[in-house]
Design brief:
The complex is a heterodimer of chains A (332) and B (326).
Chain A (H helix, E strand, L loop, with lengths): L18 H19 L14 E2 L24 E2 L4 E2 L6 E3 L2 E5 L9 E7 L5 E6 L9 E9 L6 E9 L7 E3 L10 E8 L4 E10 L3 E12 L12 H9 L2 E10 L8 E8 L9 E6 L13 E2 L7 E8 L5 E11 L4
Antiparallel strand pairs in A: 2-5, 3-4, 4-7, 5-6, 6-13, 7-12, 8-11, 8-13, 9-10, 9-12, 14-19, 15-18, 16-19, 17-18
Chain B lengths: L18 H20 L6 E2 L30 E2 L5 E2 L5 E4 L4 E7 L10 E7 L6 E6 L10 E10 L4 E7 L3 E3 L9 E9 L7 E7 L3 E11 L12 H8 L3 E10 L6 E8 L9 E6 L2 E3 L1 E7 L5 E8 L6 E11 L4
Antiparallel strand pairs in B: 2-5, 3-4, 4-7, 5-6, 6-13, 7-12, 8-11, 8-13, 9-10, 9-12, 14-20, 15-19, 16-20, 17-20, 18-19
Classes of the chains: A mainly beta (332), B mainly beta (326).
């Protein structure tokens, strides 16, 4: 590997160039550039994407809901004294009270706000799954943070092996109190044995208000600025972890027995990240009536489809119109 | 910033290199190259200069290549004074006595494209025609510079395109009118408080134009159209228009027995859609049909059947769901 030489001053008329100057200005510079262009030099990670015309990034955002625009569970605020779900899909939080923010954003519709309670320093993180394509590659993070208070925080990135080893950690520069949105960056070289990658923002103090927006992780050698994701793709990506759907039924049993069973399927928009559970969060209107045995959501055994089973008794009709079913993969 | 030097001619044996030449060919060239690599020089490395790398700029527009037409296929239609859906994601509108016809067609598709949109505008004095798309997540681009690229084959100079937000419009040059494809571009730094973002194909003189491969990207310069995989493009289109089917079959036991069918959508809609029964299924002993609880993710159809000894059924009712972004 050739090191990038320092640039030289101009030679004056009739000046004899020395061999060392020749070596530094001609040989080393030329070799360095050749190595950069053939990707055999790792001094600075190759060409800076900012220096490329038409290539500011080479891949899509690996993060789910990096713009914090999807809030299927609702806008909060939710207190997260322990590890808890976040108002923004895909993200997990601990410490502080979290809510979706509309007034203070980084030129977007929504940001994520955290008010720390003075007890627990806030942490925000997301795990990236299905990372086979990124093993041995650099994954770069860029995010925007606004810390109007007097405290600081930083970003951590790490990968996790199948054995649970999380020792490969990189830490960003500390983001201090600021009068406006500040960019925070980190670059992780993913180990060949990794199975997941995680990105986390860790507050260094426990009192104050934090805002997060436009988080971006890409398979690039350096951080690249946030690119808004198409809303349909953003939502679908989130729905691999969590989604809700309305569901209706209306049946009449043929006898008064206790085992009049009918079932319907809930097909997931996309295969879930992990085997989900399903629950009913809002009863239909009218809710189940004349129903001696409650509606049963059968155990889901695949990541692609679920089944609702009605095991009814008594006489009909039985109906539950437009109830809400939640399917949750339990990962953030 | 160092300016890229123009290199002198090669030397022959015995030549002496002057200091001027040394400074130009070695020092300045080396400084320039280092600055370019470091990203501190306004000169940039072209994407084509990096092996295996192609710039990825997602098209902010959906169906910019007019490859998906769920509602009309290759059937022709025409604009009215009220904006109405044409090919997927695109709306058409015309004023006064002017007319604007549209049709998705394989004729005159641009290179690498299967379909183009044939727009036929007939002008009336002081009137205009528009064929446009409203960007749903416009607020995400506030303060950002976006570039528009449009490919068009026109019969006259009566057409142009523009980007529009709450504060400004930025128009391309007019169509050339020579019957071959040209690229027209423009850019706009989106207003920080904009409440909408449009890309519009506009007419103010009689013109027949084939439009194709419309690209709006948050890129550093106008870029050529980048085609999405067709499945992905179709998926994005379904956020705004899609068809679903409802099928019911059961045996009634009492007079006027009701049966509800849950109808989930393959793709959640951008907003509560307008549901329209487009094809009635094969119905037996059905006395009533309703579309109810229409939501962004699903709806239910409600059938009322008569008491009968035979099955009550309605097979394969087709329902269209449409949400037009304002």
């Amino acid at each position: 590997m050739t090191l990038s030489p320092g640039t030289l001053t101009a030679v004056t008329f009739n000046q004899l160039e020395t061999a060392s100057g020749y070596d530094a200005a001609v040989l080393q510079d030329g070799q360095y550039i050749q190595e950069i262009l053939t990707n055999t030099n790792n001094e600075g990670g190759g060409v800076d994407p900012a220096g490329c015309r038409g290539v500011p990034w080479f891949s899509r955002n690996l993060l789910c809901n990096g713009g914090f625009s999807i809030s299927q569970r609702g806008p909060g605020p939710w207190n997260a004294t322990t590890v808890n779900q976040c108002p923004s899909d895909g993200w997990r939080v601990q410490g502080g009270t979290w809510s979706r923010e509309t007034a203070t954003t980084d030129s977007s519709v929504y940001s994520l706000k955290c008010v720390q309670d003075g007890t627990n320093a806030a942490t925000l993180w997301q795990t990236i799954y299905e990372i086979d394509a990124f093993k041995g590659e650099r994954v770069s993070f860029s995010g925007r943070v606004f810390t109007p208070g007097s405290f600081a925080g930083h970003v951590e990135m790490w990968d996790t092996t199948a054995g649970g080893d999380e020792s490969n950690v990189v830490t960003s520069a500390v983001v201090g109190a600021s009068a406006g949105w500040t960019t925070v960056n980190a670059v992780l070289t993913v180990r060949s044995t990794a199975v997941t990658i995680s990105v986390s923002y860790v507050a260094d103090d426990s009192t104050g208000t934090l805002y997060f927006d436009n988080f971006m992780a890409t398979r690039t050698d350096g951080p690249v600025a946030f690119q808004p994701t198409n809303p349909a793709l953003d939502l679908l990506n989130c729905q691999r972890r969590y989604f809700t759907t309305h569901f209706s039924y209306n049946i009449r049993t043929t006898s008064g027995g206790s085992h009049n069973q009918e079932s319907w399927e809930i097909v997931f928009p996309l295969p879930m990240v992990a085997l989900p559970t399903a629950s009913i969060t809002a009863s239909g209107v009218p809710a189940d009536t004349n129903n001696s045995v409650a509606l049963v959501l059968s155990s889901i055994t695949t990541t692609e489809i679920g089944q609702v089973l009605f095991d009814t008794g008594g006489t009909g009709p039985y109906y539950s119109l437009n109830m809400v079913v939640v399917v949750d993969a339990g990962v953030f | 910033m160092t300016v890229r030097p123009t290199l002198p001619a090669n030397h022959v044996d015995g030549d002496i290199v002057t200091a001027t030449e040394w400074n130009l060919a070695v020092v300045q060239q080396g400084n320039w190259a280092q600055e370019v690599i470091a990203g501190t020089n306004s000169d940039k490395i072209p994407a084509s200069g990096i092996t295996g790398a192609v710039g990825y700029y997602p098209n902010i527009l959906v169906n910019g290549g007019f490859e998906i037409n769920q509602k009309f296929g290759t059937n022709a239609g025409s604009a009215t004074s009220t904006a109405s859906m044409a090919v997927d994601r695109w709306m058409a509108q015309v004023t006064g006595a002017a007319t604007l016809g549209w049709q998705t067609t394989a004729t005159n598709a641009d290179a690498g494209s299967s379909f183009s949109e044939n727009l036929v505008y007939t002008h009336a004095a002081s009137q205009a025609g528009l064929f446009y798309q409203s960007v749903e997540n416009f607020a995400e681009f506030r303060g950002k510079t976006v570039y528009l690229t449009v490919r068009c084959l026109a019969s006259s100079t009566g057409m142009y395109a523009y980007i529009q937000d709450s504060a400004a419009t930025s128009a391309t040059v007019r169509s050339i009118g020579d019957g071959v494809y040209h690229t027209i571009t423009t850019s706009l730094t989106v207003n920080a408080a904009t409440t909408f973002l449009y890309v519009k194909i506009a007419f103010d003189a009689t013109c027949n134009v084939y439009v194709d491969n419309v690209m709006l990207a948050m890129a550093p310069a106008p870029i050529d159209y980048i085609q999405r995989p067709k499945g992905e493009e179709a998926l994005l289109c379904r956020r705004y228009y899609q068809t679903v089917k409802s099928t019911a079959r059961w045996r009634t036991q009492v007079v006027s027995e009701t049966r509800d069918v849950n109808v989930p959508y393959p793709v959640a809609m951008a907003g509560t859609p307008v549901a329209t029964l487009t094809t009635t299924g094969t119905r037996t002993n059905i006395t009533s049909f309703s579309m109810l609880s229409v939501a962004t993710d699903s709806m239910r159809t409600e059938y009322v059947g008569t008491a009968a000894t035979t099955d009550t059924s309605s097979i394969a009712d087709a329902i269209s769901l449409q949400y037009d972004v304002p």
